[in-house]
Design a protein that fits this description.
alpha+beta; Gyrase A, domain 2; Alpha-Beta Plaits; 2 domains; seven-stranded mixed β-sheet; five-stranded antiparallel β-sheet; 4 helices; 17% helix; globular; TrmE/GcvT-like; Sarcosine oxidase subunit gamma; SoxG
């Protein structure tokens, strides 16, 4: 009798064996707080030829969000739409399971690609967050230049990322394969301020 092997997949966070909760760097006050984000649902939506108005109507109906036409993020409940270029958005759900019901039925209106496993995601805040991010982010993150709700596709330490601001915190999405490199840069950039890692 021939034995057959069964293959099983175990989902792992992009931060597994890379980052963990704790505190490092300067003692005393905490200047930067990093929240490792787990379980997000992330899909890209690219409008099919002439499908912009129909896609916008479908998204308004399904999640109550008008797709931003400029580099902004809009949120409703546990979902958000982040501008990712002309006629292109990232749909982000706080829970991976909330993504598929939104994406179903959109394929006639857009190229839809679930990329939930392709991103390493974190949120960065604290009183020294801008000073820490300035060590690698090639943008002016002052509120007058990068206000609440702003989104950018940029590079951090020569790694392509998506970054947006909500309130006083910044969410950063990096390719999963670059999680170790992003963490090396981030931990070096935040250490002088004292960094608390959650998640």
């Amino acid at each position: 009798m021939v034995e057959t092997a069964s293959v099983g997949w175990t989902r792992r966070s992009a931060w597994a064996d890379v980052a963990k909760a704790g505190r490092f760097g300067a003692q005393g006050t905490t200047g930067v707080v990093v929240e490792l984000l787990y379980g997000l649902g992330i899909a890209t939506l690219i409008v099919a030829d002439g499908g912009g108005p129909a896609l916008a109507a479908a998204l308004r109906d399904r999640i109550g969000i008008e797709p931003p036409l400029t580099p902004l993020i809009r949120r409703s409940g546990g979902r958000a739409l982040a501008w990712a270029g002309p006629d292109r958005w990232m749909l982000v759900a706080d829970r991976r399971d909330d993504l598929d019901p939104v994406c179903e039925g959109l394929h006639a209106l857009a190229a839809v690609s679930n990329q939930s496993d392709g991103w390493a995601s974190l949120q960065i805040g604290g009183p020294d967050v801008r000073r820490a991010l300035a060590k690698g982010v090639m943008l002016d993150l002052h509120p007058s230049a990068f206000p609440d709700g702003a989104v950018a596709l940029t590079a951090v330490s020569h790694i392509n990322v998506v970054i947006w601001r909500e309130g006083d915190a910044f969410t950063l999405l990096a390719p999963r394969s670059m999680a170790g490199s992003i963490w090396s840069w981030l931990s070096a950039s935040t250490a002088e301020f004292g960094c608390e890692v959650r998640g």
